[in-house]
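Bit of a strange request maybe. I'm writing a small parser for structure token strings and I need a real example to test against, not something I typed by hand. Could someone generate the tokens for this chain?
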Amino acid sequence: MIYLDSAATSLIKPAAVERAVLHAMRTMASPGRGGYEASSRAAETVYACREAAAALFHVPDPSRVVFTMNATHGLNLAVHSLIKPGTRVVISGFEHNAVTRPLHAVKADVRIAGRKLFDPEELLSAWDEALRDAEVAVCTQVSNVFGYILPMDEIASLCRRHGVKLIVDASQAAGALPVEMEKWQAAFIAMPGHKGLFGPQGTGILLCGEDGEPLLTGGSGAESRLQTMPAALPEHLEAGTQNVCGIAGLLSGIRYVAQKGTENILSHERKLLETAIASLQNSALELFCGEGALQSGVLSLRAPGIDSEELAFRLAEKGVCVRAGLHCAPLAHESAGTLEGGTLRMSFSPFLTEREVKTTCALLLDVARN
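Reply from user aminoacidic:
Good idea to test on real output. This should exercise your parser:
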């Protein structure tokens, strides 16, 4: 099997992640529910993961690292906290349904700004205009479909200048690009644990510049006499028993990223991207490519006369795992002109080799011709 769908989930993970999950399953109970060793060990592991995430993402206080089920959960928390019916919200033209559907559900007044693929100047100009009468902005750091890296430093600066609160979807950035909570002064930054941080599915992180409002209420292991959630983070947003086994695995994944270095991970993935482009660029395939720093380790493409889903199925029969279709991001496809039929997406990881990429490209060219 050759796995090129890490933008969906990192199937290939550091061996330490699996060991950590199994160790937690065998030795850890619920944190904050008892003074015995198994409970204390769980509490120490959960706090260690908060500390590791705070260090990696430049969060001054680990209590502002809130654990979620996934990035979608975190984005819903952020939207629920800041946005009400009629709130004027600016988003990019490359947002995932994890952003657009919660905004639709709360009946926000949404303005889309920046629709040109791999054109940060167009996006910043459009955002500067749109932010003038906005209250909140929600923006992906990297397009999950095209790997387009949006200019988040400049976007955050514009939001501060216009007095607009910023929510960042770092789903495709965390683990490969700098995520700068303190620098951006974001209200919230959401990310999954199971992609670039190499944790298990069912884990996620919400970095909180603001206190937020709970989506769920219930037990927290603290201030049990209260019939409202505890006022302080992280308990304010974490109701119920935590996914201790998942968090233990996430801690190992974050430590791997910190040790490896996000710049080295991105460099490796970009080399694989360059290999794929070089192998495919003189073919009949339509490649969606940006220049250098504009693109992460993701490549979308189309083949003339072949549906992207059919192309992915043919590759799957040969043991190659890619994703095709709309990638839960119809807005991004609409912006890029690929809404009809979507694209086939290859996404790379630190555990993928140049040889595997070349093999995949040769197979792709073969199945596209037949």
